[in-house]
Design goal:
It is built from 8 helices and 11 strands. By secondary structure, it is an alpha+beta fold. It folds into 2 domains: about 120 residues, Trna Endonuclease, Chain: A, domain 1 (3-Layer(aba) Sandwich), CATH 3.40.1350; about 100 residues, 2-Layer Sandwich (Alpha-Beta Plaits). Strands 1, 2, 3, 4, 5 and 6 form a 6-stranded mixed beta sheet that branches. A hairpin with an 8-residue loop joins strand 5 and strand 6. The N terminus is likely disordered.
Length: about 270
């Protein structure tokens, strides 16, 4: 995937600027929330955790509302707070932690163009949206064909999502598929995946649909061993995504723990 940010801008900065430039565009707000969910954020703490004890975020009152503060770069946190304890968490973990607590999220306050306050309702919405899990079904593919008619926004979203799944699979193909009985749809096929990663990989596809604003669309997910005869047809007809292969000690993302097409408007 090509990095579209400048050295001084982060993916959240870019998504925030696009959202602010077209505040009535649901697709751009969805994209901002997707970046927020996927990004590693640095949460300002009251004190260093003791052993395996719970973290204690520093809570700030703003206009009769409570907020915890996060930054998408360690340098930005240091610019705001100096030497201070912090925890590195993904946005999805923070949404799960804050949802239902009546606490909002202060993002990059005073240190970046993406500074903003996300109210508690936004964190509730994000958790609920991320909780939409794909359903399971069994069907036997009969024919693999090139993908046709899929929105470019979905292809881009898949490319972005698969870029954070390094180590969970070697390659994925987006293709058309015809099942026994004649049913036709599209398929995202993972080849040579890590055992036990099926749920996380399927969830990435579900989120790509949701945050593309086309959650009602159909996109099946399947897993193939490299020796499966269908892999040749997938390689011949499918759109290929090469997943990043991290160093052996690196780990892939955790399984991702209100209308999802209508994210809350942030002011």
């Amino acid at each position: 995937m090509t990095d579209q940010t400048t050295p001084d801008l982060t993916p959240i900065d870019v998504a925030h600027a696009a959202m602010e430039a077209a505040q009535n565009d649901d697709a751009l707000r969805l994209r901002f929330f997707e970046r927020l969910a996927d990004c590693e954020l640095f949460l300002l703490l009251d004190a260093e955790p003791i052993g395996d004890g719970p973290i204690e975020p520093r809570v700030f009152p703003v206009e009769d509302q409570s907020y915890v503060l996060v930054f998408d770069r360690e340098e930005r946190l240091a610019e705001f707070a100096g030497e201070a304890p912090y925890a590195a968490l993904s946005g999805r973990v923070l949404a799960d932690m804050l949802a239902g607590q009546g606490i909002g999220l202060g993002l990059n306050l005073t240190v970046a163009p993406s500074e903003m306050l996300l109210p508690p309702e936004a964190m509730d919405w994000l958790k609920n949206t991320l909780a939409h899990a794909p359903s399971e079904a069994e069907a036997k593919p009969e024919e693999i064909t090139p993908p046709h008619g899929l929105p470019e926004t979905l292809v881009t979203a898949l490319d972005t999502k698969l870029a954070i799944a390094g180590g969970l699979a070697r390659v994925a193909y987006l293709a058309g598929v015809t099942y026994e009985g004649g049913t036709k749809t599209h398929l995202l096929a993972y080849v040579d995946h890590m055992p036990g990663s099926e749920g996380a990989l399927a969830q990435l596809v579900a989120e790509a649909l949701t945050f593309s604003g086309i959650e009602a669309g159909a996109l099946d997910v399947a897993f193939f061993a490299p020796s499966d005869p269908l892999c040749a047809a997938l390689a011949r007809h499918g759109l290929r995504f090469d997943l990043p292969q991290p160093e052996p000690q690196s780990t892939g993302p955790s399984a991702p723990g209100m209308d999802p097409n209508k994210p809350p408007i942030l002011r």
